[in-house]
Amino acid sequence: MIPILHFSDLIHRILTANSSIMEPLESDLKACSQPDFNQSPLICGLPDDIALSCLARVPRKYHTVLKCVSKRWRDLVCGEDWLSYRQKHNLVETWIYALCRDKILDQVCCYMLDPSSAQRCWKLIRGIPTHSLKRKGMGFQTLGKKLYLLGGCGWSEDATDEVYCYDASMKTWSEIAPLSTARCYFACEVMHGKIYAIGGLGSRLSDPRSWDTYDPHTNSWTSESDPNVVLDIEDSVVMDGKIYIRCGASAVSSHVYVVVYEPLSCSWQHADADMASGWRGPAVVVDGSLYVLDQSSGTKLMMWHKETRDWIAVGRLSPLLTRPPCQLVAIEKNIYIVGKGLSTVVIDVCNVRNAGGVMVSSSIPNLTSDDDVISCKSLSI
After folding, report:
1. Pairing of strands 163-167, 146-150
2. How far is CA 190 from CA 142, 215, 256, in A?
3. How far is CA 361 from CA 45, 321, 329, in A?
4. Residues contacting residue 22 through CB under 8 Å, at least 6 positions apart
5. Higher pLDDT pick, 57 / 298
6. Distance in angstroms between the alpha carbons of the first and the last residue of the chain
7. Region 145-152: what's the mean pLDDT?
8. Lower Cβ count inside 10 Å, N or C end of the chain?
9. pTM to 2 decimals?
10. Which parts of the chain span the membrane according to its record (predicted)?
C-alpha cells in the first residue's frame, strides 16, 4: 500500500531531497530573473519540465517556503514562467487585497486575505512607499501578479503622477513609469491586459479630461483626451469589454449618470438612464452580470438584468454582519462584501438563500480597528 502524505510532509521531503543544491539567499531580495535551465536540476533526478509540473502544484501559501530552498527556486517562483504555467493549467489561487485608511494615524494601509485558508484572517502588507501614506484619491488596481498604487493628492500636495508597484511574489515595492497626467480621485480599471486611469481631478498644469493607458510590457503610458471624459467619479467596472463609470451629479442635473468607454471606437457615450438609476453603491461584475450593493437604507444586493433592462433585488444582508461603507470584490461566483475594520461577508450568487428575509452568508472575522476600506481587488498567482 502506498502511504498518503500530508502536504507538509511532501514539502519536507522535497526540501530534504534537494538539500544538495541549496544556495544562500541574500537578505534583501532583488528583482527575480528567469531561471537558467543550464544549471543543476530543480529537483535532483528529475527533468526540469517534470520538476516544474510538480512544484507548480504547490499551494500558494507554501510559495514562501519554496523560495527559501535556493536562489534558483526563488527565481522560478517569482518569474513569469511560473505564473504562466499555473494559469495555463488552472492552478492559480486568488487572494484579496484591500486598501484602507487608518483613521487614527490618518494614513493608508494595505491588507491581504487568503479566502481558502482555515484561519481566513487579514494580514498587513508592509513597506508602502512613505510618499503615498498620507495621500487620498489614489488609484488601486491589480494586473498579473502585481498591485499598483497610482496618483493621489494631499492637503498640501497637488495631484501627482507617481505610480508604485507591489510584486506579490517578491513582496517588494518599487516605483515604475509615472502617469502621463497627474490625477487623483479618478477611475482605474484593467482591460485587455492594460491599466486605464481615467478622468478625476488633475494638477493645475494638467488636463484631467483625458485617460492614460499603461502597457506593462513596455512600462510606459499613453494619453488621450476627450471633452466627454468625466471628472466627478464615484465608481467604475469593466463589463462586456467596456468601461462603465458612475458619475456624481452634474451641474445640469441632480441625477447620477453613467458613461461608457468603447475601446474599439475609442469613444465615450452615456449609458441608458434605467441602468444609471439603480447603480447606487459599489459594484462588481460576476459572469458578465453587474451587482451593486445599495447602502442607502441598510444593505441590499441588487443585480442589473440586461434582457429586461431592470434592477432585481437579490436580497438584503443582516445589519449584524455588514459595517458600511463597504466595498465589493468577486472571486468566481462569490462576492466578498468588505466593510469597516475589514469585516467581510461572503455571498455565493449561484446559491443565494434567504432566511427570514435576510440572505444566508458566511463571514470572516474583522480586525479590532475601525479602518475605512477604500478599495478591494483580487490577484491570482
Report:
1. antiparallel
2. 8, 11, 23
3. 48, 9, 15
4. 69, 70
5. 57
6. 35
7. 98
8. N
9. 0.88
10. none
The pLDDT confidence band at residue 185, using thresholds 50, 70 and 90, is very high
What is the pLDDT averaged over residues 180-196? Answer: 97
Average pLDDT, integer, range 345-374: 79
Grid cell, residue 34, equals 528567469
SS3 319: coil
Cis peptide before 325 (omega within 30 of 0): yes
Closest CA to 291 of 322, 323, 321, 333: 333
SS3 content of the chain, % helix, strand, coil (to 5): 15, 40, 45
Cell of 188: 482605474
Q: How many CB atoms lie within 10 A of CB 261?
A: 24
Domains of the chain in sequence order: 7-88 (no CATH), 127-271 (2.120.10.80)
Q: Grid coordinates in use for 273? A: 438612464
In the three-class reduction of DSSP (H, G, I as helix; E, B as strand; rest coil), residue 104 is classed as coil
